[in-house]
Amino acid sequence: MRDMDWTGINRALHATGNPVSSFRGILHESQQVQQRPTVVLADEGPHDLLRWTVGHESAPPWTAIGSVRHSDVVDYEFRCYMAGTLGSTSHPRTYARLAFQSSLITVEGLNKIATLWTTKPTSGWRLPDRAIARATFLFQTYCDPLTWQIRRVLKCMLWPEDVAYNQAMIDMAYDAQGNLESAILSVQQLQGRDSVWYALQSVTRALSATVGDDGWTWASFDDFIEAFGTLLELPMGPSLDGVPLQLLYLDNALLRIRESVDAQSEAVDLGLERDTRTGNSMIAIRSPTWPETCPKFCLYVLSELADNSEAHLHQLLEEARSLKNYYGEGNFRFTRSDWQALHRWRTALSGGH
After folding, report:
1. Which residue, among 352, 346, 353, has the nearest Cα to 68 in the 3D structure?
2. Are 133 and 178 spatial neighbours (Cβ–Cβ below 8 Å)?
């Protein structure tokens, strides 16, 4: 997924006269203020949109052409690894780069972050036998290439240390916990258009201390791309570019993000241009690098759905078409067969045959 470079198109399609809008929007000059959402368990009320996807037991035939996903129904995954010692790797530079982007965290705080990310109590932890640890946090969001499901992965890498921490350092780790949690919640709670926009671009970030204060920021470091990307794509393998790893914990949960009415926060800055288009829906087009078993299109619903009928989904699809809210990869252009497939999908949703 990291290799996918979704860039979109700003020009009209010469053959058809129909533009496919760019993935690159206009950069906001100031951060927008939005309500802080809360994450709740999806099984408190299973989301009806889940059935409008290929592979679901109740999926209608038209899902073979296009899936329907909601921007705020997200599959979260948390992974925690213990790194080997520097002396055990033949890649000290990679080791040093990753370890540099680390923070002190209490073992108790690490357990809390794992719980916050999936909203599920942890179990079976093999945590370090010490009061605090040094950890590197990595974040990735992307669309699953088989189902179009939005996924957000938080990976934590713990570093072995022989240092005996004094009480002042332990107190520092406790004091930093609140800011660390806020930074992690800021990417956990991406919502609406931002949720889809960043996932389509397979955004990856490393948590880094903000210079001059006790805060944290999600930063992209060009010279760390290879090392970070390897870790982000790492399954349950035994090493990272020569650094021995031990998987300590793995869990995931499908969750729904809901708005809170009493709290506000600034939108997280991931250092990318944001999509500034309008509307309640977005149409994504399958990457040519994805398997053809994945539906050609996905309609991402951004608004709350009081009516989840096929007729209403058809309205959202038509709205996205009228606003030209198309999202394609690279120099994608609609072919005749693409337009025919889109027409069949529209017809099926409208109740036609």
Report:
1. 346
2. no
For residues 148 and 330, give the distance between their C-alpha atoms in angstroms, rounded to a whole number.
18
Its pTM stands at 0.82
> What is d(CA 217, CA 227) in angstroms, rounded to the nearest whole number?
19
Please report, for the chain, the start and end positions of each structural domain, with discontinuous segments joined by +.
33-60+72-269
Start-to-end CA span in the chain (Å): 35
CA distance 244 to 82: 8
* Contacts of residue 250, Cβ cutoff 8 Å, sequence gap at least 6: 77, 78, 79, 80, 236
Q: What is the pLDDT of residues 57-114, one digit of tens each?
A: 888 999 999 999 999 999 999 999 888 766 666 566 666 666 667 788 888 889 999 9
Q: Which tens digit of pLDDT belongs to each residue from 206-220?
A: 887 665 555 788 877
Question: Rounded to 5 degrees, what angle do the CA atoms 206, 212, 216 make?
Answer: 25
Q: Count the Cβ atoms, other than its own, within 10 Å of residue 251.
A: 18
> Rounded distance, CA 104 to CA 176, Å?
8
**CA 326 to chain centroid:** 20
DSSP letters for 281-305: EEEEE--TTS-TTS-SEEEEE-S--
Per-residue model confidence as pLDDT tens digits over 270-316: 888 889 899 999 999 999 899 999 999 999 999 887 777 899 999 99
